[in-house]
Amino acid sequence: MNHLDTHALQVLDAAHHLHPFNDNAALAKRGTRILTKGEGVYVWDSEGNKLLDAFAGLWCVNIGYGRKELGEVASKQMTQLAYYNSFFSCTTEPTVRLAAKLAELCPGDLNHVFFSNSGSEANDTILRMVRHFWAVQGQPKKNVFIGRLNGYHGSTVAGASLGGMKGMHAMGGLPIPDIVHINQPYWFGEGGDLSPEEFGLQRARELEDKILELGPDRVAAFIGEPIQGAAGVFIPPMNYWPEIERICRKYDVLLVADEVICGFGRTGHWFASEYFGIQPDIMTLAKGITSGYIPLGAVMFNDRISKVLMEKGGELAHGYTYSGHPVCTAVALENIRILEEEKMVENIQANTGPYLAKRWAELGEHPLVGEARLVGMVGALELVPRKPSREYFPDRGAVGQMCRDFALRNGLILRATNDAMLLSPPLIITRDQIDEMFDKAWKSLDQTAAALGIGKVAA
Ligand SMILES: *Cc1c(COP(=O)(O)O)cnc(C)c1O
Fold first, then answer.
1. Which residue among 261, 283, 284 is best mutated to probe the pocket of ligand 1, counting the most ligand atoms within 8 A of its Cβ?
2. How far apart are CA 379 and CA 359, in angstroms?
3. How far is it, in rounded angstroms, from Cα 336 to Cα 341?
4. Which of 47, 64, 354, 421 could lock 428 by a disulfide, CB 3.0 to 4.6 Å apart?
């Protein structure tokens, strides 16, 4: 194969490829970065730059890049049986084995799975499955979903409607009917003078207010990310989720935990629901389920829902061509085998998690950082003009972008959302690599502060 050089690829990309979540005109002018290789926590671009990917692709490359076993399993499955559907009363061995494995891994009685190709599709499935669940029990009006402002549940029509991103709603006339939103548990930005605990309870009780306003016989389910990822890694106070769970139980509203980012070890637990001490009725899975090596999503649901669907549901009028694709499920099994055998979750708890927490807190001492929050391997630094005040920069987002660009030039990939720097590295990151991340992040913060003329910057 004749490799095209960077410029030739950029020209073709600008001419033919519309990028998700981008200002495509600006991107075409700037030129896309072309990634060529990955190994462990590092990726390389076509200009030969080696970058520490402290964002794991897009929150997903949990076991790190370059694990040959996953490619070998995919190749073997493709050669033996590349595809068969799950529609015609059929299935395949890796799909059955993954279903059983997920039932074993997921907390409580989340013993049943429906496969999709992505997190968005899984949430579309949940919307229809839950409405059907209530309808076949004689409660067709119990169809309203409550989500949260700035929640992210994907980019399909149902996913974006369940999510609470105003910019996404503006494109295409969303949300669809019977989806409403309450406020988010974002203490740093919205907690004012309340303590995190007071604020956590207050925000959770908005759910009760909303249920009472609509009537409990109208509310089908509440959906939320245990930790809001795309919004900016909003980690709720510890009393938030137990209160949400209590309210859901009181009014018989199904509790849906979207664990697409949080699942598969991200928080130092297999699932964040375990970290927060809640038992959801339904869980959304994707991303870390295959460490991003191949697309796959899943809906986990409990015995109660399964029983109703089995006894009263009739024919399930829903499915994707690639639901339970054997290559994807085989890769997921291998990914989970590696996570388990190499004790990645345990290692975060006992070793790298506490070390990262210590170094992350040190970054919090930088004059530009108003808050450094973290759980396990997911966190954020809030950049502020005048700490300890929690006020924002006037031109929201510009400083975050500047810091992100400095980081890239320093060989570090962090994501910027508004003026928060987001961290979500591969779970295999070592202490030495955490130190490297720290040095590069500190340097980038210094450069940003210097460009803004903020603070005394002593390294
Ligand atoms: C990424 C994400 C999704 C959407 O998953 P896709 O695979 O991109 O469709 C849904 N929920 C959460 C919490 C996510 O972070």
1. 261
2. 12
3. 8
4. 64
